[in-house]
């Protein structure tokens, strides 16, 4: 056999072996989910998060029991869970991240402003609104709205919380909402799926999605499920479930209080 043909044969065998190894990682007897045990209201070890409910829905449709691998989201989350072969899907993952292979998105949401309903800032719809000047505003450092707040000249007003924390011991979103409620903060800018469900439970607070930003990073993101690179069959199976059961997924998200947008982040989904 010629050297070039031999090399090609070896490469084909290697690719086939890797593909087989990837396929073998997925459990056929359990719906194995990688999740943060304390990412309330998205996922929680007590099963009350809306991602838990979506996992249960998919487990039911697949006829498989749902089994979790718990690990705090942050550096190392994908490497120590999904890529380690301990679980087979991350229920909520932003579209376009190279750490995973994304399914089709199953919802779109946005960052927004949380204020008291009786606040003078309750009508604010954009971070460029002059009404925000000289008011303390909570934001998670390193997120897109932090950039937009700085571009709007509000850096001096920002009160920052860390992006990656172990939520079993820290609760940045809960702290921000408590401070808005008490008046210590005039507003907080938070990711909708985190803030919306919690605000829904508090009669004093409101969430306004940022749909009218004209500059800076975009405020809306499409959310997918994440699987291992190369697991095409598994991705197609999940895509089929998303497509066939989108109405049921939407019911779970709306019931939780997640603000749902159209695919282009321009308006609330009907």
From TrEMBL:
Listed PANTHER family: ARGININE-BINDING EXTRACELLULAR PROTEIN ARTP (PTHR35936:SF17), MEMBRANE-BOUND LYTIC MUREIN TRANSGLYCOSYLASE F (PTHR35936)
Residues covered by the Solute-binding protein family 3/N-terminal domain: 30-268
Entry keywords, A to Z: Signal
Protein name from the UniProt record: Substrate-binding domain-containing protein
The species this protein was found in: Paracoccus methylovorus
Signal peptide region: 1-20
Highest classification ranks of the organism: Bacteria, Pseudomonadati, Pseudomonadota, Alphaproteobacteria, Rhodobacterales
InterPro entries, per database record: Quinoprotein_dehydrogenase (IPR022448), Solute-binding_3/MltF_N (IPR001638)
A Pfam match: SBP_bac_3
Domain of life assignment: Bacteria
């Amino acid at each position: 056999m010629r050297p070039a043909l031999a090399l090609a044969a070896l490469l084909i065998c290697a690719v086939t072996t890797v593909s087989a190894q990837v396929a073998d990682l997925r459990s056929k007897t359990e719906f194995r989910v990688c999740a943060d045990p304390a990412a309330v209201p998205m996922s929680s070890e007590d099963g009350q998060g809306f991602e838990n409910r979506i996992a249960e829905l998919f487990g039911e449709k697949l006829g498989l029991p749902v089994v979790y691998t718990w690990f705090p989201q942050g550096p190392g989350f994908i490497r120590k869970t999904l890529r380690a072969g301990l679980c087979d899907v991350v229920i909520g993952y932003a579209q376009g991240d190279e750490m995973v292979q994304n399914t089709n998105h199953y919802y779109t949401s946005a960052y927004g402003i949380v204020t008291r309903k009786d606040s003078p800032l309750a009508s604010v719809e954009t971070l460029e609104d002059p009404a925000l000047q000289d008011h303390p505003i909570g934001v998670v450092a390193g997120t897109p709205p932090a950039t937009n707040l700085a571009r709007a000249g509000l850096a001096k007003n920002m009160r920052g919380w860390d992006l990656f924390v172990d939520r079993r011991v820290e609760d940045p979103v809960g702290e921000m909402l408590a401070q808005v409620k008490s008046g210590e903060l005039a507003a907080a800018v938070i990711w909708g799926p985190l803030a919306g469900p919690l605000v829904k439970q508090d009669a004093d607070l409101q969430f306004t999605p940022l749909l009218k930003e004209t500059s800076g990073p975009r405020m809306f993101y499409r959310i997918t499920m994440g699987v291992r690179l190369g697991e095409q069959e598994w991705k197609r199976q999940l895509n089929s479930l998303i497509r066939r059961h989108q109405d049921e997924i939407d019911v779970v998200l709306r019931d939780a209080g997640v603000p749902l947008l159209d695919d282009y982040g321009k308006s609330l989904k009907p």
